Structure formats: C-alpha cells, structure tokens
Amino acid sequence: MNETFMKEIIQGNLKLAKAFEIIVNGTQMDSEATEYDVVFEHNKMRLLRFKPLVKKEFHPPLLMVYAVINRPYILDLQQDRSVVKKFLEKGFDVYLIDWGTPSDADKYTCLDDYINYYMRYAVDHICKENTCTQISLLGYCIGGYFASIFSSLYPKRVKNLMIMSAPIDFHVKGGPLHVWTQKDIFDVSRFTEAYGNCTPDILNNGFMLLNPMENTYLKYLDLVEKVDNKDYVDNFFRMEKWINDGISIPARFFVEWIRDGYQENKLVKGELKVAGKPVNLNKITMPLLLIVGKVDNLVPPASTLGLLSHVKSKDTKVFENPSGHIGVSVGGKAHRVMWPEVIKWLAKHSEK
Questions:
Q1: Share of the chain above pLDDT 90, in %
Q2: Structural domains of the chain ordered from first start
Q3: Cα–Cα distances in Å, from 286 out to 208, 217, 291?
Q4: N or C terminus: fewer CB in 10 A for the chain?
C-alpha cells in the first residue's frame, strides 16, 4: 500500500469524523437574512414588510406568497441567496405572507379562508399602506396556486403576476405525487378523519421518497466530501433547518388540495369554485411570468407551464432554471443568472 493511498484514507477518515461530529453536535444557523416589520396579522397569518436597502424606485409593491407546507424564509434563506434581498436591492417594496403554524383548532381552514380572507386582507392592507389599488404578486409552489386563483377572482388588484414552480395542471406526466394520490390509492377524507391535520413528518417522508437516495445517503456523502468548505456546510445546515421546520396542512384544505387538485384537476378544467364563485383562469389578463425548474420532480415544469393555455395574458414570459423545486429559489446559478433577469422583467412592468 503506497504512501499516497494511505494519506487519502487518513484524510477521508478525518473528513468523515468531522462531518459526524458536526451532525451529532449540530450547528446554529440564522434562517432569516433580511430585517422586517410585522405590519398586519389575521389569526396566525402575519404580513411581513421588509426594511428597504435602497431608495424605493418601483411601484406597485411586491407581495410574495409561499406554500402552506414549509416556512416562507426559503425566499430569504441567506444573504447571498435571498430572493427578497435581490428585489430590495433594486428598489422594490417587498412584502411576504407568513402563514404561521396551524394547530388542531385550525383544521377547518379551507381554500376560501386563504384566498378571500388571508390573501385579500393582506392585499387590502398593502394597498392602504401605500395608497394604491394594485400590487405585483409572486406565488411559489402552493403559493403560486393561490396566486393564480386570487388573480382570477380579483384581477383588478394584480398589476403583474409571477408564478414559480406551482402546480396548476395536476395531470401532466412526470408527477409522482399524482400517481400516489389517485382516488383508488388514497382516500384523503379517511386520512384526515384518522389523523386530522397533515403533519410535517408525513409530508417530509413523502417528499423524501421522491428521490430517496439523493435525499438521504448521497447528500451526506457530499457533506463528508465538502466538510472543509465552510460556505457549503453553512448552506447545508440552513437547508436542513428549513426542511425540518415544516408546518401542518389544515385537514379541510388538505382534502381540497388532494381532491380538487391531484384527483380531479378542477382548476384547469374550469370546475374549481371558491365560496361558490367559479375560478376562471381566463380572467388573468395582466403581464404574466412563469418560473420553473427543469428537473423539478415535485412540481413538473409542464404543470406550471400549463397555465399559459388557459389565461388571456398577451404579455407572457417563461424562465427555466436547470434545477429542482428548491433550486429556483436558493440555487447559485438561479441567483447569478435567472433572478437578475426576473427583476429586470418586473422593473420593466412597474412604474417609477
């Protein structure tokens, strides 16, 4: 056994020991990069307004809406990969909805609550605070589903619409979640009768199974290999903190989400109703930008892009990032290449 090979074995063992120590002892990571004020609250929902970093240059304000599964700070995870900060640095006034943490008392929260109360109240507050009648709206994941519905029901309130990795057409090929949630496989009503709210551990186990090797064994191999790279380690544990900082989905909305989305695909069929009012995607006529990850196995790109054939917007744009579902918000290439172009698009469609 030659000397070089022995050195490689020793170095490998040292890296393995260091990685093991970090994992066992843990590491404290900041999870929010940008300062904000809580400017409005309704039940457990908070509306965050981020403090400006430069003079405000563009109107109307921008509201970001994330999913009701994980915490929204994925959009503001760290200084060099913060979508929020990118917009602030260019002079946008940025707001973000934090849905809070549902408890058993919130198990009857439904789509009507999210759209006609939480989102509408947030938009009303933003418009009142800024003396305006419209906002720009960015919806990510389920937040994009919400944003599409809100823009259909309240089109006069939305000047520009940006939809990011959002499930719109649920019956496209390449979506494992659609297969797993078929009616003859998954009785969602019986599930919520037994368990109540859909808890983070159930959700995370499901997401892990979308790519079990990469989401378990392989990612820790990468950590061992790059354990001496502080930036990589810090980013790894920020992501781990976010992944394990999930929230429950209220039982009633979970039934609606699975039944009306994955099982019956009502939104693109024109069959979805919110509080008895039909949701017509052809009411979306404002400038529309779509963002997708090319290798997204949670929300296939075709699911988001399916929105284009149902809207009446004449001004549309698509950005594709070579990443998965989360990479569109925190990926290095997304922040170097894609987000500057997204911001240019919104600046062009905003007023100074």
A1: 70
A2: 1-29+200-247 (no CATH), 31-175+251-348 (3.40.50.1820)
A3: 37, 45, 16
A4: N
